[in-house]
Amino acid sequence: MDFGNVALGDKDVVSPVFSLPRSVNLNYSYYQDQETIPKPLDVHVFTTDTGSLCLCYSLANVNSKEVSYTVAFLHKGYSKTYTVTLEEMNSLQIKELVFLDLDSYVAAYLPGQFLHLLDTQHPDLICHSFFLSGEDAKMNLLNAATVFSPSKSSVLDRSTGKIFTVELSPKALLQFLWKSKSDNDQLAALHCLLLHVGSTEELENQIIQWLSENASSCFAFDPIQELIFGKCFYA
């Protein structure tokens, strides 16, 4: 038989110049490799018509104990890092931290855990941080595990493909104001109602009713003074 340019006789023996492949176990685990690859920073930049410029990013993957994130108020020249201790949850319940642009507020939202509102216009005030958890942090009509903010004051539910407009609810803020016991929480809710939701006659009447019953119990701030400042802001 003729094999290329080599003539083979009956007694010729051809030894292969190659060896069969061998499997070598290097103890490589695909899943372990996925765990060691660091997740890129989830960076968002938000701007407002009033000149606010904020850069937000989460510092690490969410674990079962805590989550950290940073908001840089670039128009003010400083940044703040927040660390939140999470309620107990198993690995299947761990969700991604979402940053939302709510115009006057930047929100850090971890479904099932918390909604942290940060005032971008007045980050130097003690009431700039408005932290909600539990039932207060729920967003209605959303599949909490698949939310994403594609543009200002909007949320995309990726499980349904629906886009929702997000706005602060005066009714929910009033309920929070009435039930809050902390001066900081009360001031944050009152500040949000007066400066960002907008003043209406009905809303003013409800705030005045709250003031008449709770003004004497506020020690960290003067709620009547806050109401006057709020009216001047919208004058």
Provide structural commentary.
This protein is of the alpha+beta class. The protein folds into 2 domains: 41-165, no CATH class; 168-234, no CATH class. It has helices at 30-36, 170-179, 183-197, 201-214, 223-234, and strands at residues 2-3, 6-7, 43-47, 53-58, 66-73, 78-85, 98-102, 105-110, 114-119, 129-133, 147-148, 154-157, 162-165. The strands form 4 sheets. Strands 3-4-5-6 form a 4-stranded antiparallel beta sheet, with no helix packed on it. A 4-stranded antiparallel beta sheet has the order 7-8-9-10. The radius of gyration is 29 Å and the shape is globular. Mean pLDDT is 74; it is low at 1-18.
Précis, in short:
This protein has 235 residues and is α+β, with helices and mostly antiparallel strands.
Global Rg: 29 Å
**Beta-strand residue fraction:** 25-35%
Integer average pLDDT: 74
Biggest pleated sheet: 4 strands, antiparallel
Name the helix and strand elements from N-terminus to C-terminus, one letter apiece.
Answer: EEHEEEEEEEEEEEHHHH
